[in-house]
Amino acid sequence: MEELFDLRLQEMLQQAELGPGALSGLTDRLRAFVRPFGDLLVGAQQRRTHEYVSGLLSKLEKKTGESIAYLHDQDRQGIQIFVGQDDWDHQPLADLLARQIGNDLGEVDGVLVFDPSGFAKKGKKSVGVTRQWCGRLGKVENCQVGIYLGYVARQEHALVDMRLYLPAEWTGDRARCEEAGVPRGTRLRTRHELALEMLDRHGSVLPHAWVTGDDEMGRPAHFREDLRRRSERYLLAVPANTLIRDLEVDPPAYTGHGRRPDRPFQRVERWRAAQPETAWTPIDVRDGEKGPLVIEVLQRRVQTRTRNGPGAHEALFVTRERQADGCYKHDYYLSNEITGVSNAEFARVAKAEHRIEECLKRAKSEAGLGDYQVRNWVGWHHHQILSLVAAWFLVGETRRGKNPDPRSDGSAPPRHDRESVGSTMAQPYPADDRASYQPLDAADRAGSILSPSRA
Prior knowledge:
Elements: H1 2-16, H2 26-38, H3 44-56, H4 65-71, H5 76-84, H6 91-105, E1 111-120, E2 130-134, E3 139-152, E4 157-164, H7 168-171, H8 174-179, H9 191-202, E5 210-213, H10 215-218, H11 221-229, E6 234-238, E7 243-246, E8 266-267, H12 268-273, E9 281-288, E10 291-306, E11 309-322, E12 328-335, H13 343-366, H14 377-401
Parallel strand pairs: 1-5, 5-6
Antiparallel strand pairs: 1-3, 2-3, 3-4, 6-12, 7-8, 7-10, 9-10, 10-11, 11-12
Helix pairs in contact: 2-3, 3-4, 3-14, 4-5, 6-14, 13-14
């Protein structure tokens, strides 16, 4: 095993090396890459698109409109008006981005990932800003929250689209919304409704077999029900205090009086703690810095509990990973695919959620995703989509850098031999309502727990 790992490590290190011609023609490739997106705009906006994206990919410390303008030796007003005031629709650019990602990365068993991400902000003027749960900081803070759709294939992963979450204190204040340029008629929508909107818009051009997300996305039972109604297979993280009933154990003995007793509901963290060591199965999930990364998993058919009573039958998938201090980190997932899915497949899909976290980090550190200074609705969406476009260019360059053919000077080619899209989806189960949960005990090394956000 160690010899095989050493060989694999050397192979990976060789792939990471950049040849002398890796950056040759970069400027021309960027211009050609941006052109289809700029063509969706008119006049000077086409030129501004290239200028802004190239600025986002530059070495600027803060990739704001002002600094990008100075990078191109221009007056700042032109770029700032383009991003913060010009009346151009960002959604056609997102649609083109989704089609490109689907064409270039698409795999029949690809994974769609939804992930909220916060941007800490001061003051009250920036659109959507309020005190709310900020996952980036791990606490309630003054911030904006975007909901991101990502696509994960075996070869690469990329961000596709985004939505800005507007809390009730914003949608209920018409004057505040008008000042920030929020379109008239914009109503309060939960983060899950925003995710479903992106799924409905892009799902058909992104070949996929699974939908996944963190415990904030998986917590509400109604979101999982919405996915079942769309015949989407999901594997969603849930909080450690989610109530479940183990359907693979015998119910309590009947005493002969009253109703027959059923299996009790209990918090998933307590159910997990009662499982024997023999219930866990080791899985090698990826190569780590010090050797193969092995986690342990278990799978069980369960029934969840909602505010209206017993909910759907789902598959519970639990992972545990030993930490440096010897304790285990546990993560909990629910799926509507209750039969026939291997532990290895569930582990692959669960890992996809972490890939989108990597995408967000890359977009923030290398493509200026969080470096905006705009306050209004238009400016936020303009900056975000151009940042996602810039991040997608980086994905192509990364793939090109891995191309073993030194004669190739083009972007990574699209897939032409893709299998036909479509897979066997689970049939919808009976409807349920929002998930019921109980307060957590003192800190348990249980990975995902319920965040304060209730959106």
